[in-house]
Design the sequence.
């Protein structure tokens, strides 16, 4: 399932926290998928999130803001958990405060943050490797299962497009990782 979430139309300050509307959309989607899981033939305990760049930040936000809905409950779907069972953040942005090597305080990692897969290219000149590194360290310190793959080349925005660089093999690494955390049967 693909979520197209709402984003602010105008940016007037540095991006330090998730758009409230985007977080609402992500939380609502997780609840809806869980609520309809039986009808859709989905295991409600194997629902994850994946995001790229600013979407990678949304993955981190969704993974750390699940204890309380960011909007008033609408229906029974909002009684379902909005915590992802796993998270995949590819070249995430806005996780490092830029002044010192600390995690953005609006991404409160705890031991309950879901297992996370991080993917980053060292030559990413848009968000930089620090974004993934600071999140990786915070996840490790909290005892969250985390796997990070850092490649020399790939830039920013490589997504699923095949390339001549080794980073193009990342989807297979995710498949293996999902098996190791019990999300797929190998």
Sequence:
């Amino acid at each position: 399932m693909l979520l197209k979430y709402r984003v602010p139309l105008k940016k007037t300050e540095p991006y330090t926290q998730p758009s409230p509307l985007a977080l609402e959309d992500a939380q609502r989607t997780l609840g809806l998928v869980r609520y309809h899981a039986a009808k859709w033939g989905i295991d409600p305990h194997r629902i994850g999130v994946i995001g790229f760049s600013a979407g990678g930040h949304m993955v981190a936000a969704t993974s750390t803001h699940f204890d309380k809905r960011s909007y008033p409950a609408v229906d029974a779907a909002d009684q379902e958990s909005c915590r992802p069972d796993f998270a995949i953040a590819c070249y995430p942005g806005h996780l490092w405060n830029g002044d010192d090597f600390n995690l953005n305080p609006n991404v409160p990692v705890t031991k309950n943050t879901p297992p996370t897969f991080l993917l980053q290219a060292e030559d990413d000149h848009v968000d930089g490797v620090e974004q993934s590194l600071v999140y990786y360290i915070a996840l490790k310190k909290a005892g969250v299962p985390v796997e990070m793959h850092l490649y020399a080349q790939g830039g920013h925005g490589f997504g699923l497009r095949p390339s001549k660089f080794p980073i193009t093999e990342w989807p297979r690494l995710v498949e293996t990782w999902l098996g190791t955390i019990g999300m797929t049967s190998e």
Notes: The mean pLDDT is 90. The radius of gyration is 16 Å.
